[in-house]
Every structure is written in structure tokens, then in C-alpha cells.
Design a protein that fits this description.
homodimer; 257 residues; mainly alpha; Rhopdopsin 7-helix transmembrane proteins; 8 helices; 77% helix
Chain lengths: 257, 257
């Protein structure tokens, strides 16, 4: 890889610090907000905060690892003996991506059996998607990387299908004041998540060097903030709206927990 | 031992970080969830969170110790002067394994005298099991390791007997909506715990070298996550279901805050 400039290094460094601050603040926001929503939505907010808590932890580690991986000698950026540990991202996704799908299912307040079956299926698919992507990320040849990346796309597309077709009917039965937000939450999930395979395959097609590294690191960071913190704010708003006693008898739009 | 590769070293390193994040997140999940269950189940959730809190502390130490035990010099992994401290695992189990059995007993909500007698007996057996295993782990000869390991199996088998025969009748008297989960919690305990003696004796039978070390460290980590965090989620679900006013009126499935 051609040498990162100090400006590129600093941009990534500051992006990681920004992500840590955002995730930590989001965590506190979600947990403080728990008491404002009806009891059946509190687990959803607990998990929303867990996702950003876990992400805050990993951005702290990523930030430290990035700081340790380079040093400036005589005004020139030099790599140290400690390589940057990019795997923290996959470790993070393995935990947080299934939980993100679980929080969406929980805030929809479906019947118990539907909640369990959908949360389990989506959670397993999400973990599988991340687990299949990792060998590709560390693969030594690009053909291996293509194979793992393509395998990882299978659960990804299955999740997209589940969110749009499988959950379609469930969205229709959401109370009117929350339906738009639930719909938006589905689209944010797809939109933010689509960024990850784009970056993955862009690197394979030939993006390389210091500029590509900068785009990847800053891009993943922005995608993480949207998929976790911004998505979490949507979950919070859905829970809050569905907790309002509304017009006629919308409280009865709150089925059995 | 033949030399660990950097890939193996990194896999273990990331597994330890993953375990720390999981245990810390699980702790917050259980403690935030306390307010969602009926008062008689709150001690069970407090203890469930204590187990993962203690485990988070030890995985932090294990992670740090692992990081300090090796260094990369000119692209080659080398052991430093500070050996990896594997004993943190036993210190952890000595505290957490008795507590795990106590949380299972507490969530069953037995009579007070039965709770005290079963929790005491299972707690002592569990501590004994761990205490007998440790001298085997650090034994200088394999015959000593076999003796201590076999002694440690006596309380282990006694615990299995207690969980299946002794608690069998108590499971039958659990409310219908929680019976399946209580049963699953017993099986998860046995299944996850069985992994530890398997690893212990596998090392004695001849598994050694870098690959065995990798399997042991990653395997123990996965077993710990299942036995503590995943098991804790079952305990939380049992407590939540048993807090629901039963059958008839499930819309008021909003437990006492």
C-alpha cells in the first residue's frame, strides 16, 4: 500500500474517536429513555443500548489499535510493529448485527411465537453473514475472497427478503402512528447494510492504496453510526409513539407480550 | 509446544475481546431487566448479572495477559518473559459456577427451605469440582493430572444427578409457560459444562501443540459464553414469563415495575 499521509491518518483517527463518542452517548440516551416507554418496549430499548454499548467498546479498541499502529518519525508517518487490528469490526458485527434485527422484531410487538421464531431466524442468518465474510476479509488470494464474500451475500439477501416480504404483513398491522417509522427502520437497515458489501467488493475490484484505506475506514464508521445509533433513534421513536394512549382505542394495539 | 502462528494468536486474542464485550453487555442486560420481573425473581437476575460481571472482569485480565505474553518481532510471533496466566479461568469458575447453580434454583421459586438446602448443596459441589480440577491443570505429571481430574468428576456427576433427578419433581411444578425454558436451562447447563472435562482430558490423552492450544482457548471461551451469558438469557426469559399474570388475561402481561 502506498503510504498514508498524516492528513489521512488523522482523519481516520478522528473518525474513530467521533464514533466512540457517538456510540457512548447513544447508549446513555437509549437507556435513560427506557422509563419513558411502555413496559413491553423496554427490552427493545435495552437491546438498542446494548448494540451501541458494544460498538462503543469496539471503537475504543479500534481507536487504541490505530493509535498504536503508526508513529510519526521526523515528520513522516511510519507503521510500528503492532499491526492495526481490523478484526475488531467483525467481532463487533458478530454480536451487534443479530441484536439489531432482534430490536426491530421486539419493537414490532408481534405474538410471542412469531417474535421467537423471527428473532431466532434473523439472528442466526445475521451471525452467519458476518462469520462467512470474515475469512474473505483475511483471505490470501482474491479468488478466496470472492468465494467467501459471495457466500456471505446469501444470508444477506435472505435477510432482505425476510424484512420486506416476511415482515410485510406485520408492518401493516402496526398502529397508524408508528407504521411510517417501522417502514423507515426497515429501509435504514437495508440502506446502511448495503454499504458493507459495496466496500468489501470495491476493495476486491481494485480499489487499493492509502485513499482506498481511508474511504474504507471512514465509510465503515459512518455506516456503523447510521446502522446502530441513528437506527436506534428510530426504534426509540417507534417505542415512544406506540406507548402513547391514542385516539380511540389504540392501546389495544398492544397485543400480549 | 510448536509455535503459534500469528493467525492463531490473533484468533485467540479476538475471541478474548469478544468474550469481554459479550459478558459486559450481558451484565447490563440482566441488571436493566431486573425492573421488568416480579420482585421474587430480582435476586435471580442480580446474580445472573454478577456471574457475567465477574466473567467480564476475568476476560479483561485474560485478554491483557494474552496480549502481554507475546510480541511480534520482524513479523514473527515470539513469547515474552511474561507467561500467559491461565489460572484466571479457575479463579473465575470458583466464583461463578456455584452462582450459576444458585441462579437456576432461585428462578425456580421453590419453598424457602428447599431453596436454601439445594442452593447450598449445589454451590458447595460446584466449588469442590473447580477446586479439585485446578491441581490437575497445573500438575507436573500426567498421572497426578488424571487423579485430580477424576476426583473433580465426582462432584460434577453428582451435580448432573441433582439437576436431573433431584430437581425433576420441582420442574414438574413450574407454571406451564415456563416449564420448557426451565428444562432447557438444565440441558444447557449440562451441555456447556460437559465441554470443560472433555478439553481437560483431551489434553491429557495427547492433544498438544499450537492447534490444541487454539482449540482449548477458543473452546473454553465459547463454553463460558454459552454457560453464562446464553444461560442467563434463559433465566431472564423464565423470570419474565413467570412474572406474567397467567393464562386468561395476557394483555395485562405488564409485570409490576
Amino acid at each position: 500500500m502506498d503510504q498514508l499521509s498524516i492528513g489521512q491518518y488523522d482523519l481516520i483517527y478522528n473518525a474513530f474517536s467521533f464514533a466512540f463518542a457517538t456510540m457512548a452517548a447513544a447508549t446513555l440516551f437509549f437507556w435513560l429513555g427506557r422509563s419513558q416507554v411502555a413496559p413491553q418496549y423496554r427490552t427493545a430499548l435495552t437491546i438498542t443500548g446494548l448494540v451501541t454499548f458494544i460498538a462503543a467498546y469496539h471503537y475504543f479498541r479500534i481507536f487504541e489499535s490505530w493509535g498504536d499502529a503508526y508513529t510519526i518519525v521526523d515528520g513522516v508517518l511510519q507503521a510500528t510493529d503492532k499491526p492495526f487490528n481490523d478484526a475488531y469490526r467483525y467481532v463487533d458485527w458478530l454480536l451487534t448485527v443479530p441484536l439489531l434485527l432482534v430490536e426491530l422484531i421486539l419493537v414490532m410487538n408481534l405474538t410471542r411465537s412469531e417474535t421467537v421464531s423471527r428473532a431466532t431466524r434473523l439472528g442466526v442468518l445475521a451471525a452467519l453473514m458476518v462469520a462467512l465474510g470474515y475469512p474473505g476479509e483475511v483471505a490470501e488470494t482474491s479468488s478466496q475472497a470472492w468465494i467467501w464474500g459471495s457466500l456471505s451475500m446469501i444470508p444477506f439477501l435472505w435477510i432482505v427478503y425476510e424484512l420486506f416480504v416476511g415482515l410485510g404483513k406485520a408492518v401493516e398491522t402496526q398502529p397508524a402512528q408508528a407504521r411510517g417509522l417501522v417502514n423507515m427502520a426497515r429501509w435504514v437497515t437495508i440502506g446502511a447494510w448495503a454499504f458493507y458489501p459495496v466496500v468489501y467488493f470495491a476493495a476486491l475490484i481494485g480499489a487499493e492504496g492509502a485513499m482506498a484505506e481511508t474511504v474504507i475506514q471512514v465509510g465503515y464508521t459512518i455506516a456503523d453510526i447510521i446502522a446502530k445509533a441513528a437506527f436506534g433513534v428510530l426504534i426509540f421513536m417507534i417505542a415512544l409513539r406506540k406507548s402513547e394512549p391514542s385516539d380511540k382505542d389504540k392501546t389495544s394495539a398492544v397485543p400480549a407480550e
